[in-house]
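Subject: mismatched residue count in predicted assembly?

I count 502 residues in my input, but I want to confirm that the predicted structure covers every chain. Input:
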Amino acid sequence: MYTIFMLKKYEWFLFWLTCFTIAIVLCVRLWTLVPLYTDSALRSRTQALIQATAQREGWLLSGVSIQHISDESVQVHYRAYHRGRDDVQCYTISQRTGALGSCNES
Amino acid sequence: MQRILTIIGLQAYAVLLALYQGLGSVRTDEAKYLLDIPYPHPPLVRFIIDLTEPLGYQEMLWRLLLATVLVQSVWIVLHMARTFSREYFLTIGGLWIFSAAIIFQSGSIMMAPITAIQGLLFVWTLYEVENGKWKVESAVWIAFLWLISLFTAYQALLYAPIVLAIFLRLKVPFTKIVLAIGLPILLVALYITTNPLALASFISAGGQNTHVPFLDVIQSVLGSWLWAGSGVLSIIGLIGMIRSKNNALLGSFVLVFLFLLVSYRSYYAILFTPLLVGGVLFYPAVLKRSATLLALHIVISVWIFAQTTLSFSPSVARMVMQRLSDVPVQGVVLVHGSFGHEWQYESTSPVMRYAPTLLSQAKAVVCLERCIGIQKYNFFQIGNIGQEVWVRKNGD
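Triage response: the counts match. Full output below for your records.
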């Protein structure tokens, strides 16, 4: 009974807290993508780079997730979605040469 | 006892609808949700669906679950109609479960039917609030439902006028209304910016009707509205909305209509259905001659069902991938040509886009477009499969 009373008292607080938590998680994710939105040259370069890499490596774009962007490289996760265990692999793509390397190598 | 028998009868109906959906194998959009491929919708429901991925019967489990939810949600409709005469009460229930949208979309693993159920919950809340059943303390649960709905699918936004009406009728303070409605919308907008793929598919979906003549688009959208309620519910539901002067329902109806104009997909038709049922509930006088209406409704639904072709054979993707799962060679499956996510869902090996340089990693090549010169790389073609498929020779 006490728990229900407490829940009733704080239910709006719980709602705002849920929204705030989601906002924090999304902001952290957005932070890594900020260069894509602030630098149009970098954005078009990155888009072309990822598309070219995906075509060369046979990747499906839906499996590519950008983790980090800089002028030198783009770090991506690739997951080949299929039935069963489909591990996420981490790669670094050089902005200059387009060379693909594992994150462990760099 | 009567209620238990009704529940069992409805469940049998739901099982039949789920089995009907399962006949045609997994479609590309369904595969996207079953595998939790992160676009275009927010992650909430597809993440939950993906948790069941290790289960061998994942597809049928979700077909059954979603068909059950859609069919058994008739109890929500009946709850709203509890004060109606018995004839009206049964008619409104029949109008829901025999609507073409319910028949043809129950058991499809898509976000639109889930959003429609969320829409029905909003209509139910609005109805209860207008009848003085809910008090201001309940508003927070609407706020949570709104947040959950938006993180299920963007289309929940189309029910915003109903959510706004609920908050206004509950006399929630204005600032709280703005925050409770606006904050979840902002969060979804933020989610889109964190997912460039969702953003790209959003832009592409928004422009998909631009090359179609406007009259054709209007015709398709009107067809969707008629189909959603098998004609009868579509017409009396809209009349009910107009005659009851329910601006919340009308506002949502207009939004769904406009949304379909710019981003038409046949499976969005079900988004109309809860609004149409709401129209009837808010103006039950449209149910005059209810027996005739229900009979006509069922006849039209049966007629629509009779027009559909039933496919009892598995999809090409399922046939090919089942055959390849028996191949005792490790490696990826390369697919040449344009293909959907169902190929990924049916495969136990990674699926990649074909490029000659990747042949060394491949255990098989599926040629949806003609492949040239594969045999030079120690692959042999397998027959009787209805598709050009090459498999690596064992030991290479």
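Residues 69 and 117 of chain B are 8 Å apart (CA to CA). Marking this ticket as 'not a bug'.
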